[in-house]
Design a protein that fits this description.
By secondary structure, this protein is an alpha+beta fold. It contains 20 helices and eight strands. The chain has two domains: 156 residues, Butyryl-CoA Dehydrogenase, subunit A, domain 3 (Up-down Bundle); 258 residues, Malonyl-CoA decarboxylase, catalytic domain (Aminopeptidase, 3-Layer(aba) Sandwich), CATH 3.40.630.150.
Length: 425
């Protein structure tokens, strides 16, 4: 009966919200917010939520900032109530005192966001709302707690259990393919022909995570090349002149591009689940695949070389490889984690730094961000859990012997002096 009731309620909501006249509501945005949070009637609450979302979508940036500041200031927790309820719980732990404490530590704006999400299609609007919050309020300390509330709710709404893995192929709907082109963030898809070359051959794959509340919006996608060997050049991997393999001929699956699609889901991690799920599915489909690697950019390398006063333009390929290995293993943030964001992502997933390549990305972007170097992160399905645990607990970086030797060589040599004083060729 509960399932039937929920189904009938959903049908009613959709019919009501789509057919009810959009009457002008003279209440202010603040009054609508108060009405929604305090609503006990379902229909009145849905009506207020619909008006809030529609008004928000019509706001300019200054009005959106005012809206965010209202949520941050006027819908915050009351520290005195938190202290009082915590004291009561400590004095007499029980259902009521715990419930009172939990109510005190949860700001009303969290309940507001939940109730807004009851409107069909609201999830996508709320994701865009957080994108606006990040864009407009990144340097505003008062809005950081509000962003934490969005992150807290989104982490539950977008956890792995709700995500659907779908292959993206040339037969996928055009509006999905258009978004793959638009959202590609690593290696630009220059045209529909370029996209076709990444999807149609038998040695190419693409997979994306979708959410049931946003079925036409990919959240993140990965492009995969099936190859015989581990590649060391992105241009070689994507060239028009390459000879495609049959899937059965391939021994290696190469994850060469991973793109997050929704700015409003920043810091909501599901990329690790995507790679591991795709690797497991490909291994089941193609038992001949023995190696799973990335061909990844090293986006912080060029700026690190500059900070070390090393002129990358004067370095030969071996020196670039040595510098790249040293950067990936030894350049750290203040918290002891690798300086490079892509390294943090893959190492946190349990991958190993396997090999580095010079002249691997000769595009202007590749030269500007990583002096043309790229790296293979190896996903050994038998070791990813162990590697992840060591990285998470002790920040230990899994790396091949070749990478460790290059790093050791960099430590012994004054590479800055060698590169900068090398005779011009």
């Amino acid at each position: 009966m509960t399932i039937l009731g929920d189904l009938l309620s959903t049908i009613f909501e959709r019919r009501y919200l789509s057919s009810a006249p959009d009457r002008h509501d003279s209440r202010s945005m603040e009054e609508l917010i108060t009405a929604l949070v305090g609503a006990t009637g379902e229909v009145s609450g849905l009506s207020a939520a619909k008006h809030i979302l529609r008004r928000y979508q019509d706001m300019d940036d200054p009005a959106k900032l005012d809206f965010f500041h209202h949520l941050a200031r006027d819908m915050n927790i009351d520290p005195e109530t938190v202290r009082t309820t915590l004291d009561a719980y400590e004095a007499a732990p029980g259902r009521k005192t715990y419930r009172d404490f939990m109510a005190a530590v949860e700001p009303d704006r969290q309940e507001l966001i939940r109730r807004l999400n009851q409107i069909p299609g609201a999830t996508e609007t709320l994701v865009r709302m957080r994108a606006d919050l990040l864009r407009l309020g990144r340097k505003d300390q008062e809005l950081q707690a509000l962003d934490q509330d969005f992150r807290h709710l989104f982490a539950s709404w977008f956890n792995r259990g709700f995500l659907v893995l779908r292959p993206v192929s040339w037969e996928s709907p055009a509006h999905i393919l258009e978004k793959i082109i638009a959202y590609e963030a690593v290696h630009e898809i220059a045209s529909w022909d370029d996209l076709r070359r990444r999807l149609v051959p038998g040695d190419r794959r693409c997979f994306a995570f979708f959410h049931p509340a946003m079925p036409d919006e990919p959240l993140i996608f990965v492009e995969v090349a099936l190859t015989r060997d581990i590649p060391g050049s992105i241009q070689g991997l994507l060239t028009e002149e390459r000879e495609p393999l049959t899937a059965d001929e391939a021994k290696t699956a190469v994850f060469y591009s991973i793109s997050n699609c929704q700015d409003g889901l920043a810091s909501i991690s599901f990329g690790n689940s995507l790679i591991k799920q795709v690797a497991a599915d490909l291994a089941a489909e193609l038992p001949n695949l023995k190696t799973f690697v990335t061909l990844s950019p090293i986006p912080g390398l060029a700026s690190w070389l500059e900070s070390e006063e090393i002129n990358a333009a004067d370095a030969d390929p071996k020196q670039i490889r040595t510098l790249a290995a040293h950067y990936l293993l030894s350049a750290k943030r203040g918290d002891g984690l690798p300086l490079d964001p892509v390294a943090r992502f893959h190492l946190g997933n349990g991958a190993q730094v396997h090999a580095v390549h010079a002249d691997a990305d000769v595009s202007p972007k590749g030269q500007a961000q990583s002096a043309g170097a790229m790296v293979n992160y190896l996903y050994d399905l038998n070791k990813v859990a162990q590697n992840h645990e060591r990285f998470a607990t002790s920040k230990e970086i899994a790396a091949s012997s070749e990478i460790r030797s290059l790093d050791a060589a960099a430590r012994k040599q004054d590479l800055r002096k060698q590169v900068n004083e090398q005779p011009a060729v």
